[in-house]
């Protein structure tokens, strides 16, 4: 590797989430702010919201049938 072309890697960088969680990680950036982390993401917290796609499709087909009957 060539000398003096790579960024400095620091092993104690503070990564702060919008929920307030703080992690110490390694990075080339001096500090990191993020919007979502493993402590507030719905997949990891168990508060996952399941979308009812079948209901949406049925509503769309009903509206499409209603506009077709008007024509």
TrEMBL record:
Subunit field text: Part of the 50S ribosomal subunit.
InterPro entries: Ribosomal_bL28/bL31-like_sf (IPR034704), Ribosomal_bL31 (IPR002150), Ribosomal_bL31_A (IPR027491), Ribosomal_bL31_sf (IPR042105)
Record bears the keyword RNA-binding: yes
Function comment: Binds the 23S rRNA.
Cofactor field: Zn(2+)
Organism: Candidatus Nomurabacteria bacterium RIFCSPHIGHO2_01_FULL_40_20
Descriptive protein name: Large ribosomal subunit protein bL31
Any GO MF annotation of the entry: metal ion binding
The family this protein is said to belong to: Belongs to the bacterial ribosomal protein bL31 family. Type A subfamily.
GO-annotated biological processes: translation
Keywords, in A-Z order: Metal-binding, Ribonucleoprotein, Ribosomal protein, RNA-binding, rRNA-binding, Zinc
UniProt-annotated binding residues for Zn(2+): 17, 19, 37, 40
NCBIfam families linked to this entry: L31 (TIGR00105), PRK00019.1 (NF000612)
Example of a GO cellular component annotation carried by this entry: ribosome
Cofactor binding remark: Binds 1 zinc ion per subunit.
Signal peptide (from-to): none
Lineage: Bacteria, Candidatus Nomuraibacteriota
């Amino acid at each position: 590797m060539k000398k003096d072309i790579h960024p400095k890697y620091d092993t104690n960088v503070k990564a702060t989430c919008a929920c307030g969680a703080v992690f110490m990680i390694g990075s080339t950036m001096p500090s990191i702010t993020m919007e979502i982390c493993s402590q507030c993401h719905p997949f990891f917290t168990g508060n996952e919201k399941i979308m009812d796609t079948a209901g949406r499709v049925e509503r769309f087909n009903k509206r499409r049938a209603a506009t077709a009957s008007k024509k």
